[in-house]
UniProtKB/TrEMBL annotation:
Xref: PANTHER family: FAD-DEPENDENT OXIDOREDUCTASE (PTHR43031), SULFURTRANSFERASE YTWF-RELATED (PTHR43031:SF17)
Name recorded for this polypeptide: Rhodanese domain-containing protein
SUPFAM superfamilies for the chain: Rhodanese/Cell cycle control phosphatase
Domain called Rhodanese: residue spans: 18-101
Length: 103
């Protein structure tokens, strides 16, 4: 299994502030996302990743987010196996201190 890069919420917040090019993928369930998500994130539930991964751009770097970092790690591993650059958000939304938006 390939090693998955991880990023802290603080590193992602800084990247957003510096307009660095990341596509943020939120793999939480609908009811979790309703509580708020990182602005600009795309919502693709973990169970839908296998069917929707081909709609994503392989030339982009994806930061994958869930509640605690476990499901997003699974999604990151799957995406990496499919040839995507995927970074797991360590600690997930539980550790996110930045702005959130409602879908």
């Amino acid at each position: 299994m390939a090693e998955i890069k991880e990023m802290t919420p603080e590193e992602l917040q800084q990247a957003i502030e510096e307009n660095r090019a990341y596509t943020i993928i939120d793999v939480r369930e609908d009811e979790e996302v309703r509580e708020g998500m990182i602005p600009g994130a795309k919502h693709i539930r973990l169970g839908d990743i296998p069917m929707k991964v081909d709609t994503l751009n392989k030339d982009e770097t994806h930061v994958v987010v869930c509640r605690s970092g476990r499901r997003s790690m699974n999604a990151s591993e799957f995406m990496k196996e499919k040839g995507f650059e995927a970074i797991n958000l360590k600690g997930g939304m539980l550790e996110w201190k930045g702005d959130t938006t409602k879908p």
